[in-house]
Design a protein that fits this description.
- The protein has 14 helices and seven strands.
- The chain is an alpha/beta fold and 311 residues long.
- The protein folds into two domains: 198 residues, 3-Layer(aba) Sandwich (Rossmann fold), CATH 3.40.50.150; 99 residues, Orthogonal Bundle (DNA polymerase, domain 1).
- α8 crosses α9 and α8 packs across α11.
- It is globular.
Length: 311
């Protein structure tokens, strides 16, 4: 598998966070280019197992041709599904409890670079943005069919754009005469709303908001976090790499409280009842050397938590 398909972010930091043991069972919830999975396998002995999830058929097809994963044999299973079904598939493969779960929530370099996928503001392609291309909803459909109210919600909630209502109103007005079909058309439309010198950042934010809606990313992440407590063994590790504040906030809240709202439950005596605890107080960020080598890593934030209980 060529390195350009996707460069794994915070690779060694993620492996360190998992605190691996050779005979353990691990999950890579976001297989992508296979970089993290490959490194996990190198730390596993013959009794260890890795189950990786990815709903992108491109990633799955490439994994089937990669010798590292083919030769892993029974130690490696690729589940061609969304990680929101984590618990069900781990039970199906008799892989509960697990010793560690890793999730890299970023879009792969391959998905950005292939124009037909519609993720990038730089490449002309259809406004698609589906991680799983068998999914029913595309970014074009969101822009062309969603109500003004729903568009405003997406822009404000997922893009954190304060003037999301004005942006939604403009979309509704223009789409009647000229429906949105291609990424460059969307770029031309949204660019004038950006402040001077902030065009690329603003456009990336708009595309992010659309992508999150198309793929149900926040709901999927919530499901993954909640299910992790059901499948991790006591002492097991949860490692998550996020790329924007919405994801990072949800992950941080969950790791300190066991719920995405961040509300810590206490007993009558004031003792913390959280079923999980952070391993590091602060998020781990890429070094300057890594961001220079892989600019797409610069917004990455890695957090590690441990499920409480006796091992």
């Amino acid at each position: 598998m060529d390195a350009e398909y996707h460069i794994p972010v915070l690779l060694q930091e993620a492996i360190d966070g998992l605190n691996m043991r050779e005979s353990g069972i691990y999950v890579d919830a976001t297989f992508g280019g296979g970089g993290h999975s490959r490194q996990i396998l190198r730390h596993l002995g013959e009794e260890g197992r890795l189950l990786a999830f990815d709903r992108d058929p491109d990633a799955a097809a490439r994994a089937e041709q990669d010798s590292d994963f083919v030769q892993a044999g029974r130690r490696f299973i690729l589940v061609r599904e969304n990680f929101r079904y984590l618990k069900n598939y781990l039970r199906f493969y008799k892989a509960v409890p697990v010793d560690g779960i890793l999730a890299d929530l970023g879009v792969s370099s391959h998905q950005f670079d292939v124009a037909e996928r519609g993720f990038s503001i730089r490449n002309r392609g259809p406004l698609d943005m589906r991680m799983d291309q068998s999914g029913p909803l595309t970014a074009a459909e969101v822009l062309n069919t969603y109500s003004e109210e729903d568009l405003a919600r997406i822009f404000m909630q997922y893009g954190e754009i304060p003037f999301g209502r004005r942006l939604a109103s403009a979309v509704v007005k223009v789409r009647e005469a000229s429906p949105f079909e291609y990424t460059d058309q969307a770029v031309d439309f949204f660019e004038p709303f950006a402040g001077k010198g902030r065009e690329n950042k603003f456009l990336a934010t708009v595309f992010q908001a659309l992508r999150i809606e198309v793929n149900g990313e926040m709901e999927n992440l919530k499901g993954l976090l909640e299910q992790s407590l059901e499948v991790l063994r006591p002492g097991g590790r949860l490692v998550v790499i996020s790329y924007h504040s919405l994801e990072d906030r949800m992950v941080k809240n969950f790791m300190r409280s066991g719920n995405v709202d961040g509300k810590i439950e206490k007993d009558f005596y004031g003792n913390d009842l959280s079923p999980i605890e952070p391993v590091n107080r602060k998020a781990v960020m890429p070094t300057g050397e890594e961001t220079e080598r892989n600019p797409r890593s610069r917004s990455a934030r890695l957090r590690v938590a441990r499920k409480k209980g006796q091992q």
